[in-house]
């Protein structure tokens, strides 16, 4: 009995209890969202130095009848911990390929690339490459139009396996972008050792570009390294014309951010493009 009492004293923490409860509630709600098709992809344009649209990034949203549109930061971490990210990520892949097959039919969007975010757990699945091949075949989307955005988190797993998988996907025609570069425990050597097509400069560096000279120095060196390794360099979170101008002088030639367009539904995207 003493032990029981002890346990109560040690483990009763209302905040922890609330978090655990919230975790299970969200997990349950996510399962329901999957079966009731409550997920949506929104698209944010990506453009080149001339301001021409080269494609878009697909960003996941969850439409809840009561809470409205829920942003991914509020459920992706829970989906990752509960492994629900696997069926959710698969849905994203399917939906993206379906969208690509539609874009391919129109002259304006024919050459667009669509980037999707792939969570590390999802990428680490043994049959991930097969899933991609299957989705492409099923929808008729061209592999050259699909880009996978991975973060450094994928490198936690067996690096050789991950690199082999990336190489295999590239051989199929896909592009690979290293997302959020510079956050995490980035290693510059990733740029050299990973088979990449693109490196994406994180929003946090772009935000302080004018005010913070060390952020500017980081951006400049990532652009220079990217160029040295023959990678496309894209800056995310670009909000002002001053940022565009600065990034341009640094040699960055691809942009994404509110300045060019916010994430919108596929039908609204067409009106934003040049
Ligand atoms: P991310 O991949 O770094 O995506 C960029 C985020 O920055 C998006 O937030 C986008 O809406 C936002 N953003 C774009 N331009 C600007 C700008 O100019 N200013 C500011 N302040 N923000 C901008 P979002 O859509 O809320 O997504 C958050 C994160 O959720 C993403 O970050 C990504 O890590 C994750 N995510 C989104 N969709 C998926 C998905 O389908 N699968 C997985 N695994 N993760 C996803
Ligand atoms: Ca991304
Ligand atoms: Ca990013
Ligand atoms: Ca980011």
UniProtKB/TrEMBL annotation:
Highest taxon, organism lineage: Bacteria
The name this protein goes by in its record: cyclic-guanylate-specific phosphodiesterase
Residues of the full protein shown: 520 to 793 of 793
Keywords, sorted A to Z: c-di-GMP, Membrane, Transmembrane, Transmembrane helix
GO molecular function: cyclic-guanylate-specific phosphodiesterase activity
Span of the signal peptide: none
Naturally occurring in which organism (per UniProt): Marinospirillum alkaliphilum DSM 21637
Residue intervals of the EAL domain: 23-274
Keyword Transmembrane: yes
């Amino acid at each position: 009995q003493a032990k029981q009492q002890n346990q109560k004293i040690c483990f009763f923490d209302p905040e922890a209890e609330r978090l655990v409860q919230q975790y299970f509630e969200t997990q349950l709600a996510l399962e329901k969202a999957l079966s009731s098709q409550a997920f949506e992809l929104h698209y944010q344009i990506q453009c080149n130095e001339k301001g021409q649209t080269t494609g878009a990034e697909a960003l996941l949203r969850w439409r809840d009848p009561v809470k409205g549109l829920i942003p991914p930061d509020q459920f992706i971490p829970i989906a990752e911990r509960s492994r629900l990210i696997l069926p959710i990520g698969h849905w994203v892949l399917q939906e993206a390929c379906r969208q690509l097959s539609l874009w391919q039919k129109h002259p304006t969007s024919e050459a667009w690339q669509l980037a999707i975010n792939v969570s590390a757990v999802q990428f680490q699945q043994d049959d991930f490459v097969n899933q991609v091949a299957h989705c492409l075949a099923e929808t008729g989307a061209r592999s050259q139009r699909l880009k996978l955005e991975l973060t450094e988190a994928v490198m936690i797993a067996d690096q050789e396996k991950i690199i082999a998988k990336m190489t295999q996907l590239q051989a199929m025609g896909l592009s690979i972008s290293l997302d959020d570069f510079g956050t995490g425990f980035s290693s510059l050597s990733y740029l050299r050792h990973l088979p990449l097509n693109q490196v994406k400069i994180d929003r946090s560096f772009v935000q302080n570009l004018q005010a913070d000279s060390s952020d500017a120095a980081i951006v400049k060196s990532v652009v220079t390294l990217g160029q040295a390794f023959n990678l496309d360099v894209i800056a995310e979170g670009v909000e002002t014309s001053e940022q565009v101008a600065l990034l341009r002088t640094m040699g960055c030639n691809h942009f994404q951010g509110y300045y060019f367009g916010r994430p919108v539904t596929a039908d609204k995207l067409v009106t934003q493009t040049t």
